[in-house]
User: What shape does this take?
Amino acid sequence: MIGPLICIAGMAISFVGSIHCWLVYRDCVRRAHVDPERVKRFVESAPLHLLEELKAKRQVCQCCNAPIRLQGEQS
Assistant: This one.
């Protein structure tokens, strides 16, 4: 008699847990939307002069201008 009650209680707990997970997931997805204005400000504030300095220091192939990988550098 106690076996079926434990089984039913386990199924009910699993059902409530899955509903809880779905609600939390749905709430998290709503908050993750991209704000175009913030992205635009972030891109406009990028320090492009530092990128140019890094490109100038990087060795390139003379035939095709591809960057030469340093030893131990991962691609």
